[in-house]
Design a protein that fits this description.
The complex is a heterodimer of chains A (about 200) and B (about 475). By secondary structure, chain A is an alpha/beta fold. Chain A has a single domain, classed as Aconitase, domain 4 (Alpha-Beta Barrel). In chain A, about 30% of the residues lie in helices and about 15% in strands. Chain A has eight helices and seven strands. In chain A, strand 5 and strand 6 form a beta hairpin. In chain B, helix 6 links the parallel strand 9 and strand 10. The longest helix of chain B is centred in the N-terminal third of the chain and has 17 residues. The model of chain B has no long low-confidence stretch (mean pLDDT about 95). Helix content of chain B is about 35%, strand content about 15%. Chain B is of the alpha/beta class. Chain B folds into two domains: about 270 residues, Aconitase, domain 3 (2-Layer Sandwich); about 180 residues, Aconitase, domain 3, CATH 3.30.499.10. Classes of the chains: A alpha/beta (about 200), B alpha/beta (about 475). The interface between A and B is large, with 61 and 77 residues. The complex binds iron/sulfur cluster (SF4). The site of iron/sulfur cluster has 13 residues of chain B, from helix 12.
Chain lengths: ~200, ~475
């Protein structure tokens, strides 16, 4: 199963402020009543994008200047809480190709990587600099260089970002979905299983 | 140098190292439910793959089950999810504890109850509270739907190793302090992110003395502290709990038990971190905000942003209090509640209902408070019935419901309305968690929920129920 390498993501970014944005906020549980992931995009951040009467709020994702942004900029511990893959799936379907945050919750990070959606971390100051750059000019296109672990803007702004080496390598070498490799090792799996009394 | 349980279980299940440096880990036991599995089966079908070890995969239905008329969801989407699970279980030959089995329930209640959860095993489930099973000395963690696909197809996962933090709680818990208070205290101390990258090993006097059900309450909330899994080393209590359960092999049980116990951490095991807590410092705890680490003891005041240590902390408190609509700097005791919920995979087991029943007997829920009690499984429900507990709950003004996740995350009809405030024995107080985008949650132990229900406001169960030294259990 050859997969496309993800070496860089270029596009416009939108800043969604907040710490500990949990997966319930990214996709409220009531939208998880589905048997496929199709159609989840429109419900991303639903409860903060719409008020209780269904009117659009002033959430950044409703701001026309950031429409079509494909890079999400955010704060600390993004994606904490429930393990629901509906969260990264809804962001992906909403149109995001990458997330830059101060830190990520682990399960979210893993889920996103397997969807070829790089999640890189940057310092609070660097995220603030990016936030200011896109606020000043929402049309500016930034590039997340996954190979070099750097985010660049045409202004010359270049900030270092981090990502665990295993995830970086998986993305740039087109191995972000491990299924084939897992299946290839079946003989070793069977052998291991035989040694375990309960399997 | 010795090994921790985590290392022993990891080593016993490691198949090899993958090209990206991660470990391919054999998952001995795979639990699935209706919310996170249908898409995984869809992916399997798209790829033309089958289920590698169907006899090691167990299904139940919990999140979307109505707690009144369990098998008749009015919601067509919920009905679709039930139908999909039935079909997937049938198509792939998977054991399914369905509503008619008498064994259905929250997946983290069902696994231990059936004896599927065992020491020294690896357990995965598309659900972040899978750490619950760590109470038995298993390495158990929540996974995403694509990983559910991976386990179905290959019975393995690609994983990076975790560090291990030993959390020792020593000494005696005060009367009226429960397992829930212990874990809320730990999360408050170490933070909601404190456990990222770690497995938590809960050790010391307090966990040693806890019943298996109490250990499950603690391990359950590991993820609220950021840890992907948490465990207690198996001991005689673990063995006694499992003995004779349906999925425990009783041929040569002594050898099985010895093997289980051999997974316990060695006395000279090395840890990446050790935290020590004095049991006497733990008070009955409640949350005041929108993250499980927003915890305080019942006699403390709600934080005041004006006294925050730094701007970040101030912003967190501001946001939480704006959502919770609670006054800064005032006692948490006395806050009026609208709803009381006892249930969930954290606190929906027999011992939880027994303990509450003991205290609410002869008392009444305050007027205007909606109080519901939801057993974690059909078996828990039957056990409670045998002991006459539903009558006690009903006489006190609680609604006694059928088994499921219910108002823990409200994917079924049990939901908060508007900005109702709920005293809840569940595990998450996130914004909108209990079904209303503006609904509010205060987490606490089941006995504290009962006290709040009876008083109509957040209360100290020790005062309400006269709990003092001598009257307490564990
Ligand atoms: S009871 Fe709550 S936390 Fe537990 S599995 Fe159900 S929804 Fe998840």
């Amino acid at each position: 199963m050859p997969l496309d390498p993800v070496k860089q993501v270029t596009g416009r970014a939108v800043f969604v402020p907040g710490a500990d944005i949990d997966t319930d906020r990214i996709i409220p549980a009531r939208f998880m009543k589905c048997v496929t992931f199709d159609g989840l995009g429109e419900f991303a951040f639903y409860d903060v994008r719409f008020d209780d009467k269904g009117n659009k709020t002033d959430h950044p994702l409703n701001d026309p200047r950031f429409e079509g942004a494909n890079i999400l900029l955010t704060g600390v511990n993004f994606g904490c809480g429930s393990s629901r893959e509906h969260a990264p799936q809804s962001l992906r379907k909403f149109g995001f190709d990458a997330v830059i945050a101060e830190s990520f919750a682990e399960i979210f990070f893993g889920n996103a990587t397997t969807l070829a959606m790089p999640c890189v971390t940057a310092s609070a100051a660097d995220i603030a600099a990016l936030r200011d750059a896109v606020a000043a000019d929402p049309t500016v296109e930034i590039t997340i260089d996954v190979e070099a672990l750097e985010v660049r803007a045409p202004s010359g702004l270049a900030i270092p970002v981090q990502m665990p080496e295993s995830a970086r390598d998986a993305l740039v070498s087109g191995r972000w979905d491990p299924i084939q490799e897992l299946l290839d090792n079946d003989a070793a799996v069977q052998a291991r299983a035989k040694e375990l009394h309960y399997v | 140098m010795g090994k921790s349980l985590f290392q022993k279980v990891w080593d016993a299940h490691a198949v090899g190292t993958l090209a990206d440096g991660r470990t391919q880990l054999l998952i001995g036991t795979h639990l699935i439910h209706e919310v996170t599995s249908p898409q995984a089966f869809g992916m399997l079908r798209d790829l033309g793959l089958g289920v590698k070890f169907p006899e090691r995969t167990f299904a139940t239905v919990d999140h979307i089950v109505p707690t009144i008329d369990q098998d008749a969801p009015q919601d067509p989407l919920a009905a679709d999810m039930m139908t999909a699970l039935r079909k997937n279980a049938d198509d792939f030959g998977i054991t399914y504890f369905d509503l008619a089995s008498g064994k259905q329930g929250i997946v983290h209640v069902v696994g231990p109850e059936q004896g599927i959860t065992q020491p020294g095993t690896t357990i995965a489930c598309g659900d972040s509270h899978t750490a619950t099973h760590g109470a038995f000395g298993a390495i158990a963690f929540g996974i995403g739907t694509t990983q559910v696909r991976d386990v179905l197809a290959s019975q393995t996962l690609a994983l990076g190793a975790l560090k291990v933090r030993r959390i020792e709680v020593n000494g005696d818990l005060r009367p009226g302090v429960y397992a829930k208070d212990v874990i809320l205290h730990i999360i408050r101390l170490l933070g909601a992110k404190g456990g990222i990258g770690y497995a938590y090993e809960y050790a010391g006097d307090v966990f040693g003395r806890m019943s298996m059900e109490e250990r499950m309450t603690v391990c359950n909330m590991s993820i609220e502290g950021g840890a992907r899994c948490g465990y207690v080393n198996p001991d005689a209590k673990t063995v006694a709990y499992l003995k004779g359960r349906p999925y425990v092999d009783m041929d040569d049980f002594d050898a099985t038990a010895a093997r289980w116990l051999s997974f316990a951490s060695d006395a000279d095991a090395e840890y990446d971190d050790v935290v020590t807590i004095d049991a006497a410092d733990i008070e009955p705890s409640v949350t005041w905000g929108i993250s499980p680490d927003h915890g305080i003891s019942i006699n403390e005041t709600i934080p005041d942003p004006a006294t925050a240590e730094n701007p970040e902390q101030k912003a967190v408190i501001d946001e939480a209090l704006a959502y919770m609509k609670l006054p800064a700097g005032t006692p948490v005791k006395g806050i009026e509640i609208d709803v009381a919920f006892i249930g969930s995979c954290t606190n929906g087991r027999l011992s939880d209902f027994r303990e509450v029943a003991r205290h609410i007997k002869g008392r009444r829920v305050a007027p205007g408070v909606k109080a519901i009690a939801v057993p974690g499984s059909q078996i828990v429900a039957a056990q409670c019935e045998q002991e006459g507990l539903p009558e006690i709950f009903r006489a006190a003004g609680f609604e006694w419901r059928g088994a499921g996740c219910s108002m823990c995350l409200a994917m079924n009809p049990d939901k908060l309305i508007g900005d109702q405030l709920c005293a809840s024995s569940s595990n998450r107080n996130f914004k909108g968690r209990q079904g209303s985008p503006t609904g509010r949650t205060i987490l606490m132990s089941p006995v504290m929920v009962a006290a709040a229900a009876i008083e109509g406001r957040v209360a100290d169960a020790r005062e309400v129920f006269g709990i003092s030294a001598g009257s307490a259990v564990a």
